[in-house]
Amino acid sequence: MIEKLSEKIEDNSKMSNPWSNKPYIKLNFKREEVVLSKDGKAVSLDESAEVLNAKWLEHSLVAKVFGKDILSHLVAWELRRQWAHYGQFHFTTLGMGWYLCSFKTLEAMEGVLSGGPWFVNNHIVGMERWSMEFSPSSMKGLTSPIWIRMPQLPLHCWDEKNVAMIASMVGDPLMLDGNMFQWGRREFARVCVRMELDKPLPLGVWVEGLGGRFFKKN
């Protein structure tokens, strides 16, 4: 009994040891190969390695679920379910609620980016194409398609071009609700825009035309 207990303690100690059973990679590091910036205050990265890494990420999106924290495996399962028709993709947890979704083709990545809006457990998913400027500590550049309403829009503004121009003050117009052009109902215009999620939604937009200037609430 004592022997078995000691074996168990030994096994547990091995499991808790961060240096055991790890696929470590032996480095052939040479101090003389380190290059510093001109002012000597920064390490200069290996440009060829940077380019190669960026090449692997050219079909990748960075995504973040807003609202309540959701377990990463649940996020992965839900996104794979919703994006199944775009093909397989690699899901990587980046920390701080961020995820990297790497697709096999540019078409699949752009299909996901231009589709949506996407939700996980009723929480909106913000996303953007990966770039070297991406930082997990910032939401700058993170966008999502969002539907906005324009109630009581003057009838002389009720056309695709003018509605899109008004909506462009909120985000990049993507599509219009085709039902808004039916004469039986014109209570509000409905537009889908791609909006930067680090910026607040404006209360409205000032508009000027033949009928004068007016404030259009969102």
Automatic annotation (TrEMBL):
InterPro entries: At4g02000-like, DUF4283. Residues 57-137 form the DUF4283 domain. Coiled coil: none annotated. This is DUF4283 domain-containing protein. It comes from Dendrobium nobile (Orchid).
